[in-house]
Design brief:
The complex is a heterotetramer. Chain B is about 35% helix and about 25% strand. Chain B has three domains: about 240 residues, P-loop containing nucleotide triphosphate hydrolases (Rossmann fold, 3-Layer(aba) Sandwich); about 160 residues, P-loop containing nucleotide triphosphate hydrolases (Rossmann fold); about 80 residues, no CATH class. Chain B is α/β, with parallel strands linked by helices. Chain B has 17 helices and 23 strands. Chain C has a single domain, classed as ABC transporter involved in vitamin B12 uptake, BtuC. Helices cover about 70% and strands about 0% of the residues of chain C. In chain C, α1 packs across α9, α2 packs across α9 and α3 runs antiparallel to α4. By secondary structure, chain D is of the alpha/beta class. Helices cover about 45% and strands about 20% of the residues of chain D. Chain D has eleven helices and twelve strands. Chain D starts with a helix and ends in a 10-residue tail after the last helix. The chains are: A mainly alpha, B alpha/beta, C mainly alpha, D alpha/beta. Chains A and C meet through α6, α11 and α13 of A and α4, α9 and α11 of C.
């Protein structure tokens, strides 16, 4: 009878990282084949992909800036998945979160900066939650599948914000359809000289840690995981699954909204009509790749940010059309989800032990 | 085996392993044409696995099988069905949304191109149904049928495929004694028609009643094949377990205290408007075990859930230690000393992908002594888990192993340990020994008797009538959501209880 | 006033049919997949793939038939990938679907730019003329229903066939059984994996054809992201249609009509932001979804992972 | 398991080495340098361009791209570009170009104007142009634009002059200030000929949804239009197709679309965006670059109505005269700018 075996957990973790890493490598090889189809040397293209995203100070800054909303979207999807709520509507919640930050950032003035920023972020969290609550309400009240309602709500959110930005929120001093800029007091300060990296990165890191701590280290997180792993057993252990699903939903919507808010306060500063950020769907992919573990997701969100930024570099340098980025992300998702099978098999074997 | 008659199925040296487990080892077995041959053994003795290996559901690792003299190497049930085998599984494999007819004909070859001639099939099925005197409405959806009727659908299904060799895997486990007799009638008729039947069971009475020959399996090996003549139950059970075991538990005499749990006219109407529980009333005193017997699906699950607070009763009242708990959550009831050992330990008792230690604190993780600051005190949890694992002899390679990887007995020990250690005094125990081996059953029974001795209040819900009779002080029977009067176990004969279980008191048929 | 009304009805009818056809192909494909117990979240991506490869096949060979075959081939290949990953490697059906959608959004855009086509010379030649059904086409108001191209009539046949398929054929019954209770089906010798693979592949082919119809007979060019959410609408239509081909037909018609209606709102100059009109179909879909839930008739094993015992 | 880990590590190292190489070998990778070794040390002008969509859209972006290719041939510039850059992220792409040593950055859409105003001060040595831009806030920004409505005004005049049903239509992708100008120009032009004419307007809401574009136009046709001005990017092809099927006339925009359907497209209201690209590059090449707003017009070829030669002959002299008169008035500045609310 051995004691609590943390070395086993470590061995499992190592195996998971290795197998996932292999899947990512395979995905990049397939992506390279696509590049070759365009008559471009894939090695050169890949080199530019990574050097564009990581090779210069500015590239790193851009990657980190993208990472902020992407990471929050990733966390958002993961936490909802923990309670089996399929939040495919992160895109819409990010948009609404941006709207919340925008409204407070533009129309509330005269506050000292820290308070103004916090107020904006609060608004973005609330807006994100409210938008997700629509799907939540429809599910709990009518049993409508959230997977579909959240997808539909994405489209509605984008159109809705565009309507607002083209009408009541339109910057009267601008010719193009865009909102006013947020007040200077609402802007998140830059934290890396010569780049766009803003204080949101620190927020994201803190939030990432809080989520990790909550899920894996607190009784509340224990309940959340129990409900996700076996809601019936959790219910019989005195946990109220419905309550936990709602908590998971609220956190998920809040995280997505916060991602939108941070991006708006730290980077966009305003909303331009027709903006489609696409972090929502990337976040789903990154969550899958990170296997719903905060640390894994930090890495995968970073990789997806690298692919995004590096994709631009690939086009500028060797003319690889930008949509390759999406194709590559798709391949990564598929490869990683298939690798999950091998991870599951292996984990099963490793946890079985002798009897 | 020297005077070999007409052997229809011949198994030689069959071995089947699962990762880490040998399910069947070097099994030799001859089945004669036209006999009812029982495979007898404890849970996990390898009876079902053996049959599933032959039937093509699992492959076999090594060995040969001959059917009618020809080698049979079924890669899927299709191959087995093709030569005339038919298996009726312990858990019915029916499509609930399909009609009886659709269930019977599904998977058959097309008649013309891909066309399905329902009319033709219907008349053929009707023929069979008449020949075997099985009453079935072919157009009723299976989901609307009783368990007994569903079993008949399964039987007709294999007969319609011209099965001459039927394998019945624990067919009586879901039937009332009366329904079981009905099934035996059908088996007799099958035999008359020349069919061969393999009957899998661990219920000795039935086995002795229906079998021509009996093969006993233990730990995946054939122990002995005997002709059913002048056999006694004791002989068989000795062969089954390899030693003389009596499961007649000696329950301690305990002076009963005041009522620990009282139910007053509990009723429940499900969302579909169906009455699931109707005016259930009884009370249990401290130091007393009240058993509820009944066929699965008669409201036991719901009753337990209402008591546990995971379902809200539509009417009536529950008192715990004399105070009403109707509006209290499960958690509040737990804090008042209530504990629940659910029937389905895998789905309801454990979080399979949680570690053993996490499962051990599943009902106590929030208690102050497991909390440090905002987070959990993993050190305290580890210490506690280590102690329980040791005291309850839960065999696990490590505390971090997933609970789903433990054997059934160890899973049950884990669940018992955390319920008992919680300082609880009212226990709802459902199906505590389902699927366990003898050793584990003994352990569970010992723990229950210890609880009684400690003056706890215990409600035992089980579909195993013998279990209820041997453990309880008083018992009652639940049928279609209603419980009978409680009576002292020794006051009623099994036959009488069987009648109650079939709702006999109300229906005059 | 009356004639104006008649004109609007005419626009509505014609538009409704054209909006409905691609979605209905995809929804029927999704229906077949889901009847066998597998959720098809990849409809959007499949439609895009079908749209592109039909276009490309036609571009290279100048033949509509080759275009159709290319769409079908793309669907079949994707279906195989889906089958292997979902059935053999137990991949989450949701995540696979999202992966495929993102992949095709990228791949089709990428290929479209690589082949460097644009402009008039790369348009699909319209070889698929309308087939007019004599007499019926002359009926006022609904005559428009009877002057469609062959792919529309084929669709009508498919809808009718699918309805019969599930009730009157052995394959249909087996597929349904596999979707309701794969273990029961396996027990009577139905090969669950084979049947599900068949359903996924055929379903994916139909979905891709839905996209192909868009480029071959409607848009006649390929544009990035031209499917624009129609795959998700098709997915919803299956639920709205309560998993019957008749219901799916109605569900798709509802969406088609809603879109057509939102066009009318714009054309007749009702003064609302045009995005509001564009939102209408999505809102209607949600409302319909809400109204249609409860029961639902979903196959019992839909979405559940199947592990052979 | 050991073996697997080793093979995994090998593959991982392969990946890492790819990244590593990126920095190390970069100088050797500049392909264009070798050709010019013998030439006197004249560095070619490096131009970086940002597009909102695909360079194969057959409209705005494609015209800009073609101008680049031509400038490379004529002036020996070097260029690279990035497509599908959302406004929200365009600042980073501009900065990338700037850091990568480009001399001129062309933001090929007026929606980029504000972002250019933000980025340009960070790189005083880099020049920026905004195609169709509306403001220049720095010395190194040139907003190169045109009236935005002259071409569509002429289209309106033509449409009204040839329409028999007295209903004409205009289809756009999305709504914007420039779009409004364009549409208002069309309406004013049409009303100047026939005050009673009715103009139907509709939006596809996207540059991609060609099926929707066709349905909308089809609906307008049922409503009685007999001339359609289509200014919706690649969706144009579908629109013209629909017009052809219905036998109505179409006016293309912003490129010359006569060849798409010679029997249907009567003329094109062209606003070739390549002119803006070309203008900026030439200014730089001639060392003549100054910040400011440059409004190009009919004279510079930035706006025009181009007849489909097949049709010009078919129209009555009266129609042609009306259009030409309007053109003259426009280039003389005699027509008041439309009021856009």
């Amino acid at each position: 009878m051995s004691s609590f075996d943390s070395s086993l957990s470590r061995r499992i973790l190592r195996m998971r990282i290795l197998v996932t890493g292999l899947a990512v490598v395979v995905a990049f090889l397939l992506g390279s084949a696509l590049v070759a189809l365009a008559g471009i040397n894939p090695l050169t293209a890949l080199r530019y992909l990574f050097s564009g995203a990581l090779g210069t100070r500015h590239g790193i800054g851009e990657t980190l800036t993208r990472f902020i909303p992407l990471f929050l979207a990733t966390l958002s999807f993961a936490i909802a998945m923990k309670v089996h709520f399929y939040n495919v509507g992160i895109e819409g919640q990010i948009a609404l979160g941006s709207l919340g930050a925008l409204l407070v950032g533009v129309y509330v003035t005269g506050l000292p900066a820290p308070i103004h920023i916090l107020l904006c972020l609060t608004a973005s969290v609330v807006f994100g939650i409210l938008w997700l609550s629509v799907a939540g309400f429809l599910r709990f009240r009518f049993g409508a599948n959230e997977l579909l309602t959240t997808v539909m709500l994405n489209y509605i959110a984008i159109y809705l914000i565009d309507i607002l930005v083209e009408t009541v929120l339109k910057d009267p001093n601008s010719l193009i359809n865009q909102s006013q800029k947020i007040a200077a007091t609402a802007k998140l300060p830059r934290i890396m000289e010569g780049t766009t990296v803003h204080l949101g990165l620190v927020f994201a890191a803190i939030v990432g840690f809080i989520v990790y701590y909550y899920v894996w280290r607190t009784p509340g997180g224990f309940e959340l995981r129990a409900v996700g792993a076996n809601s019936k057993a959790a219910k019989y252990a005195g946990i109220n699954p419905a309550k936990l699903i709602i908590i998971g939903m609220i956190i998920s919507g809040g995280l997505a909204g916060l991602g939108g808010g941070l991006n708006l306060l730290g980077y966009q500063s305003r909303w331009v009509s027709g903006t489609f950020l696409g972090y929502g769907f990337d976040g789903i992919g990154a969550a899958v790749m990170g296997q719903y573990h905060p640390l894994g997701m930090a890495f995968s969100a970073l990789l997806f940010a690298i692919i995004r930024v590096g994709g631009g570099a690939m086009q500028r340098s060797v003319g690889v059309p930008y949509p390759l980025v999406h194709a590559l992300q798709g391949i990564v998702i598929i490869a990683v989800i298939i690798s999950a099978y091998f991870i599951e098999k292996r984990t099963e074997k490793m946890t079985k032990g002798g009897q | 085996m020297s005077n070999r008659k007409d052997v229809i199925l011949e198994i030689r040296n069959l071995t089947k392993t699962f990762p880490g487990v040998i399910a069947n080892k070097d099994v030799d077995l001859d089945i004669e044409r036209g006999e009812v041959h029982t495979l007898l053994g404890e849970n996990g003795a390898g009876k079902s696995t053996l049959m599933k290996a032959i039937y093509g559901i699992y492959g076999m690792d090594s060995g040969t099988v001959k059917y009618n003299g020809n080698p049979l190497d079924a890669k899927s049930p299709k191959d087995a069905i093709a030569v005339g085998l038919g298996m009726i599984h312990q858990h019915f494999l029916l499509v609930q949304e399909f009609t009886v007819l659709e269930n019977i004909i599904m998977g058959l070859k097309a008649d013309k191109g891909i066309h399905l001639d329902l009319g033709k099939h219907r008349s053929r099925v009707e023929e069979i149904v008449e020949r075997f005197e099985i009453r079935l409405d072919l157009d009723e959806k299976v989901k609307n049928l009783s368990v007994g009727m569903q079993q008949k659908v399964e039987i007709v299904k294999v007969l319609y495929r011209n099965a001459k060799f039927l394998i019945l895997d624990e067919p009586t486990s879901v039937l009332t004694p009366q329904e079981s007799q009905g099934l035996f009638g059908i088996i007799e008729r099958l035999k008359k028609e020349g069919a061969t039947v393999i009957f899998i069971s661990h219920k000795l009475d039935e086995v002795l009643q229906i079998s021509d020959r009996i093969t006993v399996l233990r730990d995946g090996e054939v122990i002995e094949t005997v002709v059913n003549k002048d056999l006694r139950k004791d002989d068989l059970s000795a062969m089954m377990v390899g030693r003389e075991v009596t499961l007649d538990v000696d329950m301690p005499e305990v002076e009963l205290g005041p009522d620990g749990l009282e139910l007053d006219k509990i009723s429940l109407v499900n969302p579909g408007g169906k009455t699931v529980l109707k005016d259930v009333s009884f009370s249990i005193r401290k130091g007393e075990i009240l058993g509820i017997a009944g066929i699965d699906g008669n409201g036991q699950e719901e009753l337990a859930q209402v008591l546990w607070g995971t379902l809200k009763a539509s009417g009536g009242s529950i008192k715990l230690h004399g105070s009403t708990v109707d509006d209290l959550s499960t958690r509040k009831r737990m804090d008042m000393g209530m504990a629940y050992i659910p029937a389905d330990r895998k789905k309801e008792g454990l979080v399979g992908t949680f570690q053993v230690s996490e499962n051990i604190v599943l009902n106590s993780y929030y208690k102050p002594h497991f909390i440090k600051g905002l987070g959990q005190d993993f050190g305290a949890i580890r210490e506690y888990s280590e102690r329980l694992v040791q005291e309850y002899n839960v065999k696990t390679p490590a505390l971090s192993v997933w609970a789903k990887n433990l054997s059934g007995g160890n899973q049950q020990k884990l669940i018992l340990s955390r319920a008992i250690e919680g300082n609880n005094d009212v226990f709802i125990i459902a199906q505590p020994t389902w699927g366990l081996d003898i050793g584990a059953i003994e352990f569970v029974y010992r723990k229950i008797s210890e609880l009684k001795e400690a003056g706890k209040t215990i409600l035992l819900i089980s579909t195993d009538l013998e279990e209820v009779r041997s453990l309880s002080d008083r018992m009652c029977v639940i049928f279609e959501g209603e419980v009978s009067e409680t009576f002292r176990v020794q006051d009623k004969q099994v036959a009488e209880i069987g009648l109650l279980m079939a709702g006999g008191k109300r229906r005059e048929e | 006033m009356d004639s104006q009304f008649m004109i609007i009805i005419g626009i509505l009818l014609g538009s409704t049919i054209r909006y409905t056809v691609p979605i209905l192909y995809a929804a029927l494909g999704g229906l077949i997949t889901e009847k066998a117990g597998v959720l098809n979240f990849a409809l959007e991506g499949l439609m895009l793939a079908g749209a592109f490869f039909a276009y490309y096949g036609n571009l290279v060979t100048g033949s509509i038939l080759v275009g159709v075959l290319c769409a079908l081939a793309a669907g079949a290949l994707t279906g195989l990938i889906l089958s292997i990953s979902i059935l053999k490697y137990k991949a989450s059906q949701l995540v696979m679907g999202i992966g495929i959608n993102i992949f095709y959004l990228g791949l089709t855009g990428y290929f479209f730019r690589i082949i460097g086509s644009s402009g008039a010379e790369t348009m699909v030649d319209d070889l698929l003329g309308s087939i007019h059904i004599p007499l019926l086409e002359d009926i006022p108001l609904i005559g428009v229903l009877f002057e469609q191209n062959i792919l529309v009539y084929l669709l009508v046949v498919l809808v009718i066939f699918t309805a019969r398929f599930f009730n009157k054929t052995t394959i249909g019954l087996n597929l349904k059984a596999v979707g309701e209770n794969p273990y029961a089906a396996a027990a009577v010798g139905v090969d669950v994996i084979k049947n599900r693979t068949l359903a996924i592949v055929v379903g994916s082919m139909l979905a891709a054809l839905g996209g192909g119809v868009m480029t071959l007979t409607m848009a006649r060019v390929f544009l990035e992201n031209m499917v624009n959410g129609r795959g998700w609408i098709a997915f919803t239509a299956i639920i709205l249609g309560r998993y019957s081909s008749k219901g799916v037909l109605i569900g798709c018609l509802v969406f088609g009509a809603a879109t057509a209606l939102s066009d009318i709102v714009q054309i007749v100059g009702i003064d609302i932001p045009y995005q509001a009109a564009l939102m209408v179909p999505y809102i209607i879909t949600i409302v319909a979804l809400v109204l249609s839930v409860g029961g639902g008739n979903a196959p019992a094993a839909l979405g559940a992972r199947y592990d052979r015992e | 398991m050991k073996k697997k880990i080793i093979s995994l590590l090998l593959v991982a190292m392969f990946l890492v080495s790819l990244v590593g190489c990126a920095g190390a070998e970069e100088p050797a990778e500049e392909p264009a340098v070798e050709e010019n070794v013998e030439e006197p040390a004249v560095e070619p002008i490096k131009v970086g361009v940002i597009f909102t969509g695909s360079i194969g859209d057959g409209a705005w972006n494609e015209s800009g791209y073609n101008a680049l290719v031509k400038a490379k041939e004529d002036l020996g510039i070097e260029f690279s570009f990035q497509e599908s850059v959302p406004v929200a992220e365009s600042g980073e792409v501009m900065r990338n170009f700037a850091y990568e040593g480009y001399d001129l950055i062309i933001a090929h859409d007026f929606n980029y104007n504000d972002i250019v105003s933000e980025v340009a001060p960070e790189f005083p040595d880099v020049l920026f142009t905004v195609s169709y831009g509306y403001q220049s806030t720095e010395d190194n920004i040139a907003a190169i634009t045109s009236s935005g409505w002259h071409a569509s005004y002429m289209a309106g005049v033509l449409a009204a002059a040839v329409s028999e049903t007295e209903i004409v239509g205009v289809l756009s992708a999305t709504d914007s200030f420039m779009g409004k100008r364009m549409r208002t120009g069309f309406v004013n032009g049409a009303k100047s000929v026939n005050p009673d004419i009715e103009v139907l307007e509709a939006f596809t809401g996207s540059w991609d949804d060609v099926v929707k574009g066709k349905e909308l136009v089809n609906g307008m046709i049922q409503q009685g239009i007999d001339v359609i001005l289509s200014n919706s990017g690649n969706v144009n092809f579908g629109v013209i197709e629909t017009a052809k099927e219905a036998g109505i006339m179409a006016i293309g925009a912003p490129s010359d679309l006569s060849s798409v359907a010679p029997d249907t497209v009567i003329a094109s209201a062209v606003t070739p965006s390549g002119i803006y690209v070309d203008y900026g590059i030439r200014q730089l090449a001639e060392d003549n670059f100054d910040g400011g707003v440059y409004v190009l017009g009919i004279k510079e070829g930035a706006e025009d109505l181009i007849w489909n030669p097949a049709f010009e002959a078919e129209f009555s002299a009266e129609v042609i005269d009306t259009v030409n008169a309007a053109k003259l008035q426009l280039s003389n500045g005699e027509i008041e700018e439309p009021v856009v609310e």
